[in-house]
Write a structure and sequence with these properties.
Blueprint: H1 2-14, H2 17-23, H3 27-39, E1 44-46, H4 47-63, H5 72-82, E2 85-88, E3 97-100, H6 102-115, H7 123-139, H8 144-166, H9 175-216, H10 223-229, H11 239-252, H12 254-269, H13 278-285, H14 287-314, H15 317-337, H16 389-399, H17 403-414, E4 419-421, H18 422-428, H19 435-448, E5 450-461, E6 467-478
Antiparallel strand pairs: 1-3, 2-3, 4-6, 5-6
Helix pairs in contact: 2-6, 6-9, 9-14, 9-15, 11-14
């Protein structure tokens, strides 16, 4: 029975992305490309950078005989569908970003461990086990006497160490053992990246599960709704949420962070650190920033999920989603009920218009060439016009306000009297351009006349011999400003 359960569990595991990546036909090449793209150059890549670097890697592999028939875009799409990559669109980012999934990161770390196996039963690993077991025994002991005895023994050990140092007996760890411990620390720290992403994936699964429970809850108020309306942060109160909050508090603690930075600076400055590979030293130097970036990313995801879930419930948006869910379930059930009565190709007399657009490849688009639509700039000889200058002058006068004639009328009146209004000018000189003449006099008066607060009634007759009236501002042209009306 144990073998049967084990075989079933392993068959299920074989369908997971981790096993599929290790067992893929092109597994070595794919793992090498993923490691080159994400592990060596960075954990997250924008879409444009990923496609550009992947193009270079594919060309280099093809040059040595590797058969890679697909395009870089096709490989990225395949890796997404296989679960080896994850795609995100952070807020404010100009393009989508890609990173390794948890399963792919675990597979790459497993393969790296096979290529660079650790020494069996190393002293550093054994010391970590002993130290953690002793701490566990001490921190779970509720007997005061045994705790006091352990503390006194620790105090005596420290006193002996102080006395030994005062006598000049400082013993440093051997360089080979120091390098061994440093690599154990690097291996543990690298596993934290997968832990961060596992927690983030757990938050996503939890968020989807909570929303699904809201959709499938048939009652008016379910347990999830009751807790959300009561202000309970279900995501933050989950096991993953509490675990991450505890880790985040430890990581952002100023004292712990300072201790971590100081220890990293001291370790990387020791002579034995020169025996580490350049990539290992680089990882240690950027460990603090990497941990904070990974933790900040998970923290932001956690906060966004919690806020979006509360907003989803408080805005009653879930009611519309639940209604759509019910309609889809009813339609599915109705289809299942008639599946044995209606043939798949039977005409039912109903047409459904597709709402999606036709997808075309970018390679089918034709680039715009401005030279194809350049207008003909050559000039053609025009036929001689039969219009004379007087006809042209009359057309211009009819299409535009004749300010020169209006100024001449005003000057003629000001030569006889000291001031004149627009109504008086129109009484003596009819409006040859109708309303245009009236507007022209108002424009001239606002610029060269005296505008008062009152109004006056003006009368003119248009080309249709119909008399019209209008109220305009009371404007007076003065003889003192006669010269302003001279062209």
């Amino acid at each position: 029975m144990k073998a049967l359960r084990g075989a079933a569990a392993l068959r299920n595991l074989r369908e997971q992305p981790l096993w599929r990546l290790l067992a893929a036909n092109k597994g070595p090449v794919v793992i090498a490309m993923l490691q080159s793209l994400f592990v060596e150059s960075g954990q997250t890549l924008p879409s444009s950078v990923l496609h550009e670097r992947l193009t270079r890697d594919i060309e280099a592999l093809r040059a040595v005989g590797e058969e890679l028939p697909q395009t870089p875009q096709a490989y990225v799409a395949e890796w997404l569908s296989q679960g080896w990559l994850t795609r995100r669109f952070p807020a404010g980012a100009p393009e989508e970003e890609y990173e390794l999934s948890v399963d792919a990161l675990t597979a790459l770390r497993f393969v790296t461990g096979l290529l660079k196996p650790r020494t069996t039963a190393t002293e550093s690993r054994l010391s970590v086990v002993i130290h953690q077991l002793s701490r566990l025994a001490e921190e779970t002991d509720i007997n005061p006497q045994s705790r006091l005895a352990a503390l006194r023994a620790e105090r005596d050990r420290i006193d002996r160490a102080i006395a030994e140092v005062e006598r000049g007996g400082v013993k440093a760890l051997a360089p080979e053992r120091a390098v061994e411990r440093a690599r154990e620390v690097i291996a543990l720290a690298q596993e934290l990246a997968a832990d961060f992403r596992s927690v983030r994936d757990e938050f996503e699964r939890l968020n989807r599960g909570l929303r699904q429970s809201l959709m499938e809850n048939e009652g008016s108020r379910g347990d999830v709704l009751e807790q959300l309306f009561a202000g309970v942060d279900l995501i933050g109160e989950s096991d993953a949420g509490r675990t991450f909050h505890a880790f985040w508090r430890l990581l952002t603690d100023s004292e712990q962070a300072a201790t971590l930075r100081e220890s990293l600076d001291e370790v990387t400055g020791r002579p034995f650190a020169r025996q580490l590979e350049s990539q290992e030293r680089k990882f240690l130097l950027g460990l603090t920033g990497a941990l904070l970036n990974e933790g900040r990313g998970v923290h932001d995801v956690l906060q966004n999920f919690a806020r979006s879930l509360k907003s989803f419930v408080q805005s009653r948006e879930f009611l519309e989603h639940r209604r759509l869910h019910s309609l889809l379930k009813a339609a599915t059930q109705a289809a299942l009920n008639v599946k044995d009565e209606v043939r798949p190709n039977e005409q039912v007399g109903f047409e459904l218009m597709q709402s999606s657009s036709r997808i075309r490849s970018v390679s089918q688009w034709a680039l715009y060439d401005p030279a194809e639509r350049v207008t003909d700039s050559s000039m053609q000889a025009a036929e001689p016009s039969e219009l004379d200058l007087e006809t042209v002058s009359e057309l211009v006068r009819q299409s535009e306000i004749d300010f020169r004639t209006l100024k001449a009328h005003v000057r003629a009146i000001l030569e006889r009297q000291s001031q004149v209004s627009i109504a008086q000018v129109l009484a003596e000189y009819p409006a040859e351009q109708g309303l245009g003449s009236v507007v022209g006099y108002v424009a001239l008066g606002s610029k060269h006349g005296e505008v008062t607060d009152g109004t006056e009634l003006v009368v003119w007759e248009g080309d249709d011999e119909v008399q019209r009236r209008a109220k305009v501002p009371a404007i007076y042209f003065m003889r003192e400003r006669y010269l302003e009306l001279v062209d």
